[in-house]
Amino acid sequence: MLDVTIGAVALRLQTEPGLFSPQRPDAGTLAMLSRITFDPHDKVLDLGCGYGLVGILAAHHASPAQVIMLDNDPRAVAVARRNAEANGVPAVTVALSDGFRDTRETGFTKIISNPPYHVDFSVPRHFIEKGFNRLVLGGTMWMVTKRRDWYRNKLGAIFGGCRVHEIDGYYVFEATRRRSTYARWR
Length: 186
Known about the structure:
By secondary structure, the chain is an alpha/beta fold. Helices cover 27% and strands 28% of the residues. The chain has five helices and nine strands, in the order ββαβαβαββαβαββ. The longest helix is centred in the middle third of the chain and has 13 residues, at 74-86.
């Protein structure tokens, strides 16, 4: 069990070995969350939710019915669902999906992700390219990694630019959808 307090929200989260960062909240995720402000009217996607920290926190600020948590690991989905109920936000949607492949949901104001670090960048490429199309105009994709250049370039190519915040050795990317089509292909 993890006890986590972020701002005024105290959470108790169950974890399991094999899930991402089971011993303590990931420092990169906490760095990213330090930059995000949630609005009560947000529609939030926690992409790659793991045991649910980001989505459950978002549901304490926005309507839980407007928070969707996706992961491609059935164990993570089961644990995140239990954590949402245990932390008073059972109305969030927690679903199994390989990125965006198994969901049709759109209209997000925020998509938040700490993508897996793959050498070939196939997962973050999918998250960025498909995520752009799932955001409303003015919606923002938030990502955190230890790698700066590839993400800055890819987000810039798709979104037309991004802000990069360096926090404790992590890069937090903030890319806002300002147009209806990709900036350019890369």
